[in-house]
TrEMBL record, chains A, B:
GO terms for cellular component: cytosol. One of its GO terms (molecular function) is pantoate-beta-alanine ligase activity. InterPro entries: Cyt_trans-like, Pantoate_ligase, Pantoate_ligase_C, Rossmann-like_a/b/a_fold. The reaction proceeds by a bi uni uni bi ping pong mechanism. Its EC number is 6.3.2.1. NCBIfam families: cyt_tran_rel (TIGR00125), panC (TIGR00018). (R)-pantoate binds at Q61, Q153. Pathway: Cofactor biosynthesis; (R)-pantothenate biosynthesis; (R)-pantothenate from (R)-pantoate and beta-alanine: step 1/1. Catalyzes the condensation of pantoate with beta-alanine in an ATP-dependent reaction via a pantoyl-adenylate intermediate. This is Pantothenate synthetase.
Length: 290, 290
């Protein structure tokens, strides 16, 4: 596996593969790999002939009061994990390679990025879109793999690629969870043992919502309220948002009429965690007589 | 010459040429060709094996009170002119092909786009950058040709391409002028015979400035004042800006120490015209004794 830090060498490697007719997959990451990242790499491996994993803790997507400085990093371990997963190239540029002096161009998706994480993290998706557009332009992948844990990011990136006519197929990998259900995240390393227990309330609230829907609940407000109450019952949690809405437009819905997104952002101590699921109201559910 | 209106057919044509090893040039235009456009096509012809001219009156770069609706259009004439100049493909998509329902992604250059035309036309360069990024992603040209008449646009597009890692070389073609010096522009068709005479004050003020510099003037403020007074002496003119500054950063300078941009935007009646030149202070000019 090659480890490249310069855009020019990354572009040359990708150009060479393209000239050989290879299909290229890109997995954009911020590193500190867990099984979630590794599953994205497996998915990329199946979808293409050459797999590039980018590892870049993107300063542009962190707010001034966020955890850029303490975001966990371990390039050596990440390189070993990626290589073991059959990755062909790890692209790990320094920040000044991506944002040299005088940098001043930004890519922004408006509506889809306005609410949810976009509301609590101003500028976050602008940073995400900009770095992803740059990575797409450097690597020119045929396919790129994103995790569905960051559901809004997935939809924002899909929109950005379609709107800007970037000829890349975006694949989504389902949320990868710890055995007890906690969604894998590099930020889980911030959690104390107590916080780790409280963090489980995110997943169990998704299960609660799925059960309510199975039992016939269709009112978004009642689902949100039940989820919020469940999370609040766990010590040290503070809800940023509980959202029930359309998975494509990310607009809230009042009643569930088809596959519906339930997305959460919750502070557990000083750590902000997100999770989501798609609620599937079955039209012949037990509460319906027709 | 092919006339294509769909992104997918444009992309296929360009992909085919690329696979054959052809070098592709793109000339983005809003149509209603004059000799300025045709000179860009000649430059593109020399720089590449295949020349694509895009013809798109981009709604995103017009303000709500601007001349989008009355901007001159003549596709048939344009197609004949482009074909005669050896263009391989005219890409003329309808607006809904470039901005379908739900479109919401924008590319923005901050500092370089903030002043001059960016100040008087809010959102203009956001529209320009977005459509140019899209055209670059559809055609993937090796080289793109822009006119130096829109000097700020040229520098903003250069910055955008470099910042977003778009692997395209940007070529600038010098301002093309009518025999009497008026910079060619599709908007010149708006001018009445009287306005056409007044419009000449833009070019003659550039000549005046060049003469002052040749005679030793180095104070930007005095050059600006002389240029402004000259333009104001022409009937029906109203100055938007007279700018003397650094051609790379587009920041104003107080004294001329090297090649310096003089850029103008002037209303002549209801028509806004722009022009510019690079002032070249000769270090051994007549006013210097050292």
């Amino acid at each position: 596996m090659d480890i490249l830090t310069e855009k020019s060498s990354m572009r040359r490697a990708a150009d060479r593969w393209r000239a050989e007719g290879r299909r290229i997959a890109l997995v954009p990451t911020m590193g500190y790999f867990h099984e979630g990242h590794l599953s994205l790499m497996d998915m990329a491996r199946k979808a293409a002939d050459r797999v590039v994993v980018s590892l870049f803790v993107n300063p542009a997507q962190f707010g001034p009061s966020e955890d850029l400085a303490r975001y966990p990093r371990d390039l050596e371990r990440d390189a070993a994990l990626a290589e073991a997963r059959g990755v062909d190239c790890l692209f790990a540029p320094p920040a000044e390679e991506m944002y040299p002096a005088g940098y001043q161009t930004w890519v922004e998706v408006t509506d889809l990025a306005a609410g949810l994480c976009g509301a609590s993290r101003p500028g976050h998706f602008r940073g995400v879109c900009t770095v992803v557009a740059k990575l797409f332009n450097i690597v020119r992948p045929d396919v790129a793999v994103f995790g569905a844990k960051d559901f809004q990011q997935l939809q924002v990136v899909r929109r950005m690629a379609a709107d800007l006519d970037l000829p890349v197929e975006i694949l989504a990998h389902p949320v990868v969870r710890e055995p007890d259900g906690l969604a894998m995240s590099s930020r889980n390393t911030y959690l104390s043992p107590e916080e780790r227990r409280s963090a489980l309330s995110l997943f169990s609230s998704l299960e609660l919502a799925a059960r309510l829907v199975r039992e016939g609940e269709r009112e978004a407000g009642r689902i949100e309220a039940a989820v919020a109450a469940h999370i609040r019952s766990a010590p040290g949690t503070r809800i940023d948002y509980v959202f029930v809405g359309d998975p494509e437009t990310l607009r809230p819905v009042k009643r569930l009429a088809g596959p519906t997104l339930l997305a959460l952002a919750v502070w557990v101590g000083k750590t902000r965690l997100i999770d989501n699921t798609i609620l599937e109201p079955c039209p012949t559910g037990p509460m319906r007589a027709d």
